[in-house]
Design brief:
The chain is an alpha/beta fold. It folds into two domains: 30 residues, no CATH class; 242 residues, Class I glutamine amidotransferase (GATase) domain (Rossmann fold). The protein has six helices and 16 strands. It has a nine-stranded mixed β-sheet, with helices on both faces. A three-stranded antiparallel β-sheet has the order 1-2-3, with no helix packed on it. The longest helix is centred in the C-terminal third of the chain and has 22 residues. It is globular. The N terminus is likely disordered.
Amino acid sequence: MAAMDYPTGWRYRHLGKNFPYCKIFITIGRLYNPYSKKAMKVTPIIGIICCRKDIEGQPGQAVHEKYINSISSFGGMPILLPADLADIDDAWRLFDGLDGLLLTGSYSNVAPLHYRADHEETYLDEARDALSFRLLDYATKNHLPVLGICRGLQEMNVYFGGTLYPDLFVNPDFSKKHKENNEASLSEQYGLAHEINIHSGGILATFGQSAKVNSLHKQAIKDLGPALRIEATAPDGLIEAVSHPAYDFVVGVQWHPEWQPHAHPLSQFLFNSLIQQARQVAEQKTT
């Protein structure tokens, strides 16, 4: 029987000699077989926040493929979240379909007004600010796993009441190893730059006590959000990773694990953890 005969979502599929044609129900990203006692493996849906970018002379919403590929290659289903969602009252209808979140890095910076600062920023993306805070609000209320990278870490810290250094390189306390050389090739810019010291008692402590990471950022955490826990620091004392102890996986990192993640054990740990936690959320929705 043709699939189009079942508009409500019920479909007939050939599932083998024991069940030549079985009736199953298909939802977005999920498959339920009422004849099987064993649940089929669920692909968790990971929402990836977009950035405002100039695309061929016109404003656009975009995400670098390295973030998308990192989610799909570790077993997730990536879906892009444009900034306009922040202004849609019932966007929760879309958010309800998510199993996890990825807050990406970006060349833009969080608007200073969000952390009680008054300096000028040359590259803002206030629409992304609004969406990231709304997504974090939804994720924490609904216990979705979240991975924040670079700007994503900074958004998390600001959301939870922390502040940022607007420019590390006018501060003599911090090493120049945090900034990439813009004239170098991408492989050099994303090369391993410095060690991190992983603090005990946190999520990263299950990975190990130290690692070496890349470093491509101008801004960083100054005052830690009161609810957050430090996961790792650089040798100069700069906060490199945080988590929220009230949640299974709300983690932010200052480096870029999405760059060639399969080549770096810590990157594998981060993306595997995000996908595993998101899969648990997805499976709970299907039971």
